[in-house]
């Protein structure tokens, strides 16, 4: 069974690993997405601007329905970077509506905006799975997100056994793992997770694939 990396920015592929390459469709360059690779496409809150939303969204809509686009995003909210929050919310919500229309799960970037994130989820009555990627906050916040139906993905933070991510992961059955842009590979992350969960890598792979099957709606 393969390793599954739900969120990576590394285009290079590896045998034994199924990865979802995250691409931001912002910017002026003509966009080409690999057709034989699983990807997520979205407007990243660091780069998306309200001024270009219409053009960016048009481009996103042309691509988002393709079969190899497994997730919409990463998109979301970031209090420390990008447009002012009001604009980020507009950009974010249009992508959530698109995901909803296509029945595709969303991979979320959220920095210091968890209250806003939960409000948006409630307001839009979203049915598609929403995965908070790179979660490494206090376990209590994680529990709160899970209780509201969010999914969580953990990255290199779990290599530190005292991190909020590692503490929370110990008690969870359903979660994802990712490399994001970290300087380590997915095998190391699985290894750390297996230690925290006191299970084998094979058990972990089976569990994560089952979780993925559950939320991969089409
Ligand atoms: Zn990322």
Q: How much helix, percentage-wise, in residues?
A: 25-40%
The description of the largest β-sheet is:
8 strands, parallel
Order of helices and strands: EEEHEHEHEHEHEHH
Number of domains: 1
Strand order of the largest sheet: 1-2-3-4-5-6-7-8
Query: Can you tell me the residue ranges where pLDDT is under 50 for at least 5 consecutive residues?
Result: none
CATH topology: TIM Barrel
Beta-strand content estimate: 15-25%
Spatial gap, N to C terminus: 21 Å
Highest CATH level, the class: Alpha Beta
Number of strands: 8
Please give a structural write-up.
The structure is a single chain. The protein has 218 residues and is of the alpha/beta class. 38% of the residues lie in helices and 20% in strands. It has seven helices and eight strands. Strand 4, helix 2 and strand 5 form a beta-alpha-beta unit. The site of zinc ion (ZN) has 6 residues, from loops.
